[in-house]
Design brief:
Length: about 170
């Protein structure tokens, strides 16, 4: 997707650019191309961005660690304020007001639709990733829990240390 020139939006019909897309985003691994539509409208002091997208991603279950496919769907809108960025103040403590926590772009800059769609899709990824609502998690057999005879050889050093500490006199 090509970047949209913000000053050029003012010259377009209804000061809006709308388009459909179907492509893979380089910054997001997906099984299917991200497809949807996006509309960017210049409203004087801000951009009104609305869009929807759909794709499939592979996630890892937080309970059993198995990979599973998940459909990401989004229907999002955002107002992006147009204002010149303030120069950074290094070394000084800066208090940030709640009203300053908004997205801004320079009025003569570019809007990158692929970056906006990427951010919205990342926000749509579920925080709690479960392959199934009834996922029981990793199966822990009693031998693993109690440390049966089939102990992983990588734990042999720890087992030897545990035996040494068990045989030594306790500290007084």
């Amino acid at each position: 997707m090509d970047a949209i020139s913000i000053p050029q939006l003012l010259k377009m019909a209804e000061q809006r650019q709308a388009f459909e897309f179907r492509e893979h985003l380089a910054s997001l691994e997906t099984l299917t191309p991200v497809q949807g539509h996006l509309s960017v409208r210049h409203c004087g002091g801000y951009l009104e961005v609305t869009g929807s997208a759909d794709t499939i991603v592979t996630l890892a279950c937080h309970r059993c660690l198995q990979h599973y496919n998940h459909r990401l769907q989004l229907d999002a809108s955002e107002l992006i304020w147009l204002e010149e960025p303030e120069p950074p103040t290094f070394g000084a403590e800066v208090e940030v007001d709640y009203d300053d926590l908004v997205e801004t772009l320079p009025p003569n800059g570019l809007f990158h639709p692929d970056n906006w769609i990427y951010q919205q899709l990342c926000l749509a990824i579920p925080h709690r990733q479960l392959c199934d609502r009834n996922c029981s998690g990793i199966d822990l057999s009693p031998e693993i829990i109690t440390g049966g005879d089939d102990v992983d050889r990588r734990w042999a050093g720890l087992a030897a240390l545990k035996q040494q500490l068990g045989e030594a006199d306790p500290p007084r």
